[in-house]
Amino acid sequence: MGLGDKIQNKSEEVVGKAKEATGKATNDRSLQAEGVKDQAAANAKQAGEKAKDAFKDATDNK
Prior knowledge:
Layout: H1 3-26, H2 29-60
InterPro entries: CsbD, YjbJ_sf
Organism: Glutamicibacter soli
Protein name: CsbD family protein
């Protein structure tokens, strides 16, 4: 995973956490749900990138 991708995915996760917290604080369920969705998307991207890295590492070591 490239450093740029890591930073982008982490920032997306942080923004999602902020949205979720703001939604909770303001009792805005829609914003809270959007924050949770953003976090899930960022985590899925991170997992996909980690899987690609693991596959690349496994094939490079042969």
